[in-house]
Predict the structure.
Amino acid sequence: MTYPAPTRRQYLLVRGVSLLAAALLAGCVRPAAGGGAKDYLVYVGTNVASDQENTIFLYRLSPATGTLTPVSAQRGGSNPTYLTMDAAHRRLFAVNETQTFRGATSGAVSAFAVDPRTGNLTLLNQQPSNGAAPCYISLDRTGKAALVANYVSGNVSLLPVAADGTLAAPTATNQHEGSGPHKNQQGPHAHCIVPDPANAFAFAIDLGTDRVYGYRLDAAKSQLTRLPEPAFVARPGAGPRHLIFHPNGKQAYLINELNSTVTVLAYEAPAGRFRELQTLSALPAGYTDENSCADIHIAPSGLFLYASNRGHNSIAVFAIDTATGTLVPIQDVDTQGKTPRNFTLDPSGHLLLVANQNSNNVVTYRVDQQTGLLTPTGQQVEVPSPMFLQVVADFTR
């Protein structure tokens, strides 16, 4: 997609971002892709509803070519649709997106030990998520608390993580209330929960109520206490889905599923709240067919932002103004598949991987480090209903 000619300010911004990227690269000691960089491991969570089948797949990713090579497949429980790994790469956690678990209305959260020689997983234990259809999991910055968003029930939970990686039962569960004007907003739908950079607050993004709820986070005491007022109220019918902080900690970015927009937020850290700076479409001008946004990520450099569109089936690319945090659209790229539910970048930011849920494929793209633009590598693999991609340095070699 070619965008209209940029304004002078937009041209100067994108040109400045490119020059800054070049300067950062010149002083970077990290090896370039293909220049001796180590391989990566990629864990793929799926929407396969079976406890008796392989539901988490492991691949080795070549930074030189973008090729994904199968390593193993393992039982990760039913519908392990979102994963997270601890900082030491020794424990992996998954939500099992179901609506019943052990006879109760709840999904599950699974903890796995990671074999340092092979990357394979061994189930440690499971706990209820205290809500139906958990769809998101993150760890606080100490690794002592797992934070879970339950979509159908519209609530969030905190589960303590023991030193051996096992999960305790939830010690805090908070129910959201309310609705919105869209047909998919008849009740609360918690879709994401993430800690802030200081680990002082956790923020729960609720698609059903157009709210971002702030919680005081005390991982040591396994406490999650909601603030009296929402941290941010999105536009009616926006359907906020995921939130990500900029590496500088001063801005955050909210992707809105239902109206296909991205909102730039100033983060007021002491109070645990946000202020809107900008909202713009994630779609190219003139596109009017059905679409819903899904995922959002920032390049490790902090200079570019990426967002996925389901319907248009694309990755939207934006340049980030380093002075203000605001965005300028610069590209959108076909995902070579249907329904890009999740995507991610490798830790170096040289490759971007897309999981196309409804076409059963994972596709890789080269990322231009100076411009942020994406180019298909020509490499992809077939995976049943891929929902999430966890990329880490290959610790097995």
About this structure: Residues 2-6, 22-35 have pLDDT under 50 and may be disordered. The longest strand covers residues 273-281. The chain has one domain: 8-148+161-208+215-328+337-365+380-393. Residues 8-148+161-208+215-328+337-365+380-393 form a domain with the Methylamine Dehydrogenase; Chain H fold (CATH 2.130.10.10).
